[in-house]
C-alpha cells in the first residue's frame, strides 16, 4: 500500500480534484455577475429597497461560498505541500488532514469579515456608483421615485465622467482603477499598459492630476454601474429628435 506509486497516484487525483474545485470559482463569479446585474436593474427601474436588500443577502451567500471554496482549496494545497515535504512512509489519511486544515481556516470566519470581503464591497460600490450617477442619494434611495426629467438632468451633469482620459470620447466598456478610482476605456488602457510594458516602463494613471505612477492590469475592474449610466444617457440622447 505504501509504494511510491500509490502516493503519486493519490497526489495526481488530488490535483485533478483541485482543478475542478477551481472551476467552481467560475460558477461563483457568474452568480456574482448576475446578482449584481439584477440589483443594478432594480435600482435603475425605480428602487424597490426591499428587493435590492434581497439581492444583498444573495450576494452575501455568494461571498460565503467564495470564502469557503478559497479556504478549502487552500487547505488542500497546504496539506499536499506538507505531505510532500514530510514524505511519510505511510500514506496519511488525506481527507482527515484536509478537513483539519479547513476547520482551522473556518474558525476565524465572521459575518463581519464577510461584509468586508472584496466580492461584497465591490457589489456595494457598484450599487452606490449607479445611485450616484442617477442622482439618488443613499438616504433617499427608497423615498420618492425619480421622474424621468430629474434622472436626465443628473445623468447629463455627470456626462463629463463618461469620457475616457485616453481616447477623449465616451466610453463603451469602462474599467475602474481600484487604486485611485479613475476610469478608462478598457481597450485603451490595456493597450497603453502593453505598449509601456514592451518598453519595460510603468504606466502612469492618464487622468490629469493623479499621482498613481503604476497602473496594473490586475487593478482594473469592469465598472458596470458607469456602463449603465452611459447606456441610459445614450438612449436618452438618441430618443431626442
Ligand atoms: Zn488615477
N-to-C terminal Cα separation, in Å? 80 Å
Number of distinct beta strands: 3
Q: What topology, given as strand order, has the largest sheet? A: 2-1-3
What is the overall pLDDT average? 81
Oligomer: single chain
Q: In total, how many domains does the architecture comprise?
A: 2
Largest sheet: 3 strands, antiparallel
| Low-pLDDT residue spans | 1-5, 137-157
Number of helices: 8
Catalogue the ligands.
zinc ion
Please give the share of residues in helix.
55-70%
- Please indicate the percent range of residues in DSSP E strands (runs of 2 or more): under 5%
Broad shape: globular
Please describe what this structure looks like.
- This protein has about 240 residues and is mostly helical.
- It has 2 domains: about 1-140; about 145-240, Zinc/RING finger domain, C3HC4 (zinc finger) (Herpes Virus-1), CATH 3.30.40.
- Helices cover about 65% and strands about 5% of the residues.
- The protein has 8 helices and 3 strands, in the order ααααααββαβα.
- The chain has helices spanning about 5-45, 50-85, 95-105, 110-115, 120-135, 150-155, 185-200, 225-240, and strands at about 175, 185, 220.
- It has a 3-stranded antiparallel sheet with strand order 2-1-3.
- Helix 5 (about 120-135) packs parallel to helix 8 (about 225-240).
- The protein starts with a helix and ends with a helix.
- Bound molecules: zinc ion (ZN).
- Zinc ion binds near residues 207 and 210.
Amino acid at each position: 500500500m505504501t509504494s511510491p506509486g500509490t502516493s503519486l497516484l493519490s497526489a495526481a487525483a488530488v490535483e485533478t480534484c483541485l482543478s475542478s474545485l477551481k472551476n467552481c470559482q467560475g460558477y461563483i463569479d457568474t452568480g456574482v455577475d448576475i446578482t449584481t446585474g439584477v440589483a443594478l436593474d432594480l435600482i435603475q427601474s425605480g428602487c424597490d429597497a426591499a428587493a435590492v436588500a434581497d439581492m444583498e443577502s444573495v450576494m452575501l451567500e455568494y461571498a460565503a461560498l467564495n470564502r469557503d471554496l478559497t479556504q478549502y482549496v487552500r487547505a488542500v494545497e497546504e496539506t499536499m505541500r506538507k505531505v510532500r515535504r514530510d514524505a511519510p512512509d505511510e500514506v496519511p489519511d488525506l481527507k482527515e488532514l484536509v478537513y483539519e486544515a479547513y476547520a482551522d481556516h473556518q474558525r476565524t470566519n465572521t459575518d463581519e469579515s464577510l461584509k468586508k470581503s472584496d466580492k461584497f464591497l465591490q457589489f456595494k460600490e457598484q450599487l452606490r456608483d449607479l445611485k450616484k450617477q442617477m442622482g439618488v442619494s443613499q438616504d433617499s434611495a427608497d423615498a420618492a421615485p425619480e421622474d424621468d426629467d430629474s434622472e436626465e438632468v443628473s445623468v447629463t451633469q455627470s456626462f463629463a465622467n463618461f469620457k475616457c482620459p485616453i481616447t477623449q470620447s465616451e466610453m463603451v466598456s469602462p474599467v475602474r482603477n481600484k487604486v485611485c478610482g479613475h476610469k478608462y476605456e478598457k481597450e485603451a488602457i490595456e493597450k497603453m499598459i502593453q505598449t509601456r510594458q514592451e518598453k519595460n516602463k510603468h504606466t502612469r494613471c492618464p487622468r490629469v492630476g493623479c499621482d498613481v505612477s503604476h497602473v496594473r492590469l490586475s487593478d482594473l475592474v469592469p465598472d458596470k454601474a458607469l456602463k449603465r449610466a452611459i447606456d441610459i444617457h445614450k438612449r436618452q440622447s438618441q430618443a431626442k429628435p
